[in-house]
Protein backbone atom coordinates (compact mmCIF):
# COMPACT_ATOMS: atom_id res chain seq x y z
CA UNK A 1 0.00 0.00 0.00
CA UNK A 2 1.29 3.43 -0.85
CA UNK A 3 1.58 5.52 2.31
CA UNK A 4 2.67 8.99 1.25
CA UNK A 5 -0.23 11.21 0.09
CA UNK A 6 1.83 12.72 -2.73
CA UNK A 7 2.53 9.23 -3.99
CA UNK A 8 -0.98 7.90 -3.50
CA UNK A 9 -2.23 10.00 -6.43
CA UNK A 10 -0.16 7.84 -8.75
CA UNK A 11 -2.30 4.79 -7.97
CA UNK A 12 -4.95 6.15 -10.31
CA UNK A 13 -2.69 6.23 -13.36
CA UNK A 14 -3.32 3.89 -16.21
CA UNK A 15 -0.34 2.04 -17.59
CA UNK A 16 0.51 3.90 -20.74
CA UNK A 17 2.61 3.42 -23.87
CA UNK A 18 5.15 6.19 -24.43
CA UNK A 19 7.28 6.99 -27.44
CA UNK A 20 10.73 8.45 -28.00
CA UNK A 21 12.55 9.14 -31.25
CA UNK A 22 14.04 5.64 -31.25
CA UNK A 23 11.89 3.56 -28.90
CA UNK A 24 8.40 2.54 -27.91
CA UNK A 25 8.02 2.20 -24.13
CA UNK A 26 5.11 -0.14 -23.55
CA UNK A 27 3.74 -2.28 -20.73
CA UNK A 28 5.38 -5.69 -20.35
CA UNK A 29 3.53 -8.86 -21.33
CA UNK A 30 4.26 -12.46 -20.32
CA UNK A 31 5.39 -13.04 -23.91
CA UNK A 32 8.37 -10.79 -23.09
CA UNK A 33 9.85 -13.45 -20.78
CA UNK A 34 12.70 -14.44 -23.18
CA UNK A 35 13.83 -10.81 -23.39
CA UNK A 36 13.46 -10.30 -19.64
CA UNK A 37 15.54 -13.46 -19.18
CA UNK A 38 18.43 -11.74 -21.00
CA UNK A 39 18.01 -8.56 -18.94
CA UNK A 40 18.04 -10.59 -15.74
CA UNK A 41 20.71 -13.18 -16.44
CA UNK A 42 23.68 -11.34 -17.92
CA UNK A 43 26.19 -10.52 -15.15
CA UNK A 44 27.31 -7.25 -16.70
CA UNK A 45 23.70 -6.00 -16.71
CA UNK A 46 22.82 -6.93 -13.14
CA UNK A 47 26.17 -6.26 -11.45
CA UNK A 48 24.82 -3.13 -9.69
CA UNK A 49 21.25 -4.16 -8.99
CA UNK A 50 21.64 -7.04 -6.58
CA UNK A 51 19.45 -9.49 -8.47
CA UNK A 52 20.24 -13.18 -8.41
CA UNK A 53 20.75 -14.06 -12.09
CA UNK A 54 17.85 -15.88 -13.70
CA UNK A 55 18.75 -19.52 -14.34
CA UNK A 56 15.65 -20.52 -16.28
CA UNK A 57 13.06 -18.88 -18.49
CA UNK A 58 10.52 -19.65 -15.75
CA UNK A 59 12.46 -17.25 -13.47
CA UNK A 60 11.85 -14.42 -15.94
CA UNK A 61 8.18 -15.34 -16.27
CA UNK A 62 7.80 -15.30 -12.49
CA UNK A 63 9.63 -11.97 -12.30
CA UNK A 64 7.26 -10.43 -14.84
CA UNK A 65 4.23 -11.71 -12.90
CA UNK A 66 5.47 -10.55 -9.50
CA UNK A 67 7.06 -7.26 -10.51
CA UNK A 68 5.92 -5.17 -13.52
CA UNK A 69 2.62 -6.96 -14.14
CA UNK A 70 1.79 -6.92 -10.44
CA UNK A 71 2.90 -3.27 -10.17
CA UNK A 72 0.49 -2.30 -12.96
CA UNK A 73 -2.39 -3.86 -11.00
CA UNK A 74 -1.32 -2.53 -7.60
CA UNK A 75 -0.25 1.03 -8.46
CA UNK A 76 -1.30 1.70 -12.04
CA UNK A 77 2.30 2.12 -13.20
CA UNK A 78 5.55 0.19 -13.46
CA UNK A 79 8.62 -0.52 -15.54
CA UNK A 80 7.98 -0.37 -19.29
CA UNK A 81 9.55 -2.51 -21.99
CA UNK A 82 11.79 -0.41 -24.26
CA UNK A 83 11.41 -1.59 -27.84
CA UNK A 84 13.70 -0.41 -30.62
CA UNK A 85 11.56 1.11 -33.39
CA UNK A 86 13.80 -0.05 -36.24
CA UNK A 87 14.19 -3.69 -35.26
CA UNK A 88 11.14 -4.14 -33.01
CA UNK A 89 13.54 -5.77 -30.52
CA UNK A 90 12.98 -5.40 -26.77
CA UNK A 91 16.27 -3.81 -25.69
CA UNK A 92 15.65 -2.82 -22.09
CA UNK A 93 13.22 -1.28 -19.67
CA UNK A 94 12.54 2.06 -18.03
CA UNK A 95 9.77 3.25 -15.78
CA UNK A 96 8.47 4.00 -12.34
CA UNK A 97 8.18 1.62 -9.41
CA UNK A 98 6.79 2.23 -5.94
CA UNK A 99 9.30 1.04 -3.35
CA UNK A 100 7.43 0.30 -0.15
CA UNK A 101 10.55 -0.15 1.97
CA UNK A 102 11.59 3.48 1.45
CA UNK A 103 8.11 4.88 0.64
CA UNK A 104 9.29 6.42 -2.61
CA UNK A 105 8.64 6.16 -6.33
CA UNK A 106 11.80 5.15 -8.13
CA UNK A 107 12.67 5.67 -11.76
CA UNK A 108 14.75 2.76 -12.99
CA UNK A 109 16.20 1.48 -16.24
CA UNK A 110 18.22 -1.36 -17.67
CA UNK A 111 19.43 -2.04 -21.23
CA UNK A 112 21.18 -4.83 -23.11
CA UNK A 113 24.95 -4.15 -23.41
CA UNK A 114 24.78 -3.80 -27.20
CA UNK A 115 22.68 -0.67 -26.59
CA UNK A 116 24.87 0.99 -23.93
CA UNK A 117 26.57 4.28 -24.70
CA UNK A 118 24.00 5.33 -27.30
CA UNK A 119 21.96 7.73 -25.14
CA UNK A 120 19.00 5.36 -24.90
CA UNK A 121 18.80 5.40 -21.09
CA UNK A 122 18.86 9.21 -21.20
CA UNK A 123 16.15 9.24 -23.90
CA UNK A 124 13.94 6.81 -21.96
CA UNK A 125 14.39 8.58 -18.61
CA UNK A 126 13.55 11.94 -20.20
CA UNK A 127 10.36 10.52 -21.67
CA UNK A 128 9.24 8.85 -18.43
CA UNK A 129 10.16 11.91 -16.36
CA UNK A 130 8.34 14.29 -18.73
CA UNK A 131 5.26 12.06 -18.66
CA UNK A 132 5.26 11.87 -14.85
CA UNK A 133 5.63 15.63 -14.50
CA UNK A 134 3.33 16.73 -17.35
CA UNK A 135 0.54 14.58 -16.01
CA UNK A 136 1.18 16.31 -12.65
CA UNK A 137 1.16 13.06 -10.78
CA UNK A 138 4.67 13.31 -9.35
CA UNK A 139 6.27 15.93 -7.17
CA UNK A 140 9.21 13.73 -6.16
CA UNK A 141 11.03 10.82 -7.81
CA UNK A 142 14.10 8.93 -6.68
CA UNK A 143 16.76 6.72 -8.18
CA UNK A 144 18.44 4.06 -6.02
CA UNK A 145 21.94 3.71 -7.43
CA UNK A 146 24.77 1.43 -6.39
CA UNK A 147 27.67 3.67 -5.33
CA UNK A 148 29.92 2.21 -8.06
CA UNK A 149 27.43 2.73 -10.90
CA UNK A 150 28.79 5.95 -12.37
CA UNK A 151 26.85 5.60 -15.65
CA UNK A 152 23.47 5.62 -13.88
CA UNK A 153 24.48 8.55 -11.70
CA UNK A 154 25.42 10.45 -14.86
CA UNK A 155 22.04 9.74 -16.50
CA UNK A 156 19.97 10.98 -13.54
CA UNK A 157 22.24 13.98 -12.93
CA UNK A 158 21.43 15.22 -16.45
CA UNK A 159 17.86 15.80 -15.26
CA UNK A 160 18.65 17.52 -11.98
CA UNK A 161 18.54 14.49 -9.68
CA UNK A 162 20.81 15.12 -6.68
CA UNK A 163 22.17 12.71 -4.12
CA UNK A 164 20.19 13.14 -0.93
CA UNK A 165 21.51 10.31 1.26
CA UNK A 166 22.37 6.63 1.32
CA UNK A 167 19.74 4.03 2.13
CA UNK A 168 19.60 0.29 2.66
CA UNK A 169 17.32 -1.63 0.31
CA UNK A 170 16.55 -5.33 0.35
CA UNK A 171 17.43 -5.92 -3.30
CA UNK A 172 21.06 -4.88 -2.64
CA UNK A 173 21.54 -6.23 0.88
CA UNK A 174 25.30 -5.77 1.31
CA UNK A 175 25.78 -2.19 0.10
CA UNK A 176 23.91 1.00 1.02
CA UNK A 177 22.78 2.67 -2.21
CA UNK A 178 22.85 6.34 -3.13
CA UNK A 179 19.38 7.87 -3.15
CA UNK A 180 19.22 10.44 -5.95
CA UNK A 181 16.18 12.75 -5.73
CA UNK A 182 14.26 14.93 -8.16
CA UNK A 183 11.71 17.26 -6.63
CA UNK A 184 9.44 19.69 -8.41
CA UNK A 185 10.47 23.19 -7.46
CA UNK A 186 14.11 22.36 -6.77
Describe this structure in words.
Helices cover 31% and strands 31% of the residues. The chain has helices spanning 5-8, 33-41, 43-46, 57-66, 68-75, 120-134, 150-157; strands spanning 18-19, 23-27, 79-84, 90-99, 104-111, 140-145, 162-169, 172-183. Mean pLDDT is 90; it is low at 1-11. By secondary structure, the chain is α+β, with helices and mostly antiparallel strands. The relative contact order is 0.17. The strands form 2 sheets. A 5-stranded antiparallel beta sheet has the order 1-2-3-4-5, with helices on both faces. A 3-stranded antiparallel beta sheet has the order 6-8-7, covered by helices on one side. The protein has 7 helices and 8 strands; from the N terminus they run H-E-E-H-H-H-H-E-E-E-H-E-H-E-E. The protein is globular and about 40 Å long. It has a single domain (5-183), classed as Gcn5-related N-acetyltransferase (GNAT) (Aminopeptidase, 3-Layer(aba) Sandwich).
Lay out the secondary structure.
Layout: H1 5-8, E1 18-19, E2 23-27, H2 33-41, H3 43-46, H4 57-66, H5 68-75, E3 79-84, E4 90-99, E5 104-111, H6 120-134, E6 140-145, H7 150-157, E7 162-169, E8 172-183
Antiparallel strand pairs: 1-2, 2-3, 3-4, 4-5, 6-8, 7-8
Helix pairs in contact: 2-4, 4-5
InterPro entries: Acyl_CoA_acyltransferase, GNAT_dom, N-acetyltransferase
Pfam family, one: Acetyltransf_3
Protein name: GNAT family N-acetyltransferase
Amino acid sequence: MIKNNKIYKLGTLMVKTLETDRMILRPFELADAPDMYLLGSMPQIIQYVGNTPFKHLADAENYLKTHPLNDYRETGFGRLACVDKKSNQLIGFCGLKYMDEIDEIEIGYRFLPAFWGKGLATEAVKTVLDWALEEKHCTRLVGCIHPDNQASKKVLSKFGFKKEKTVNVAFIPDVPVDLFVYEVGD
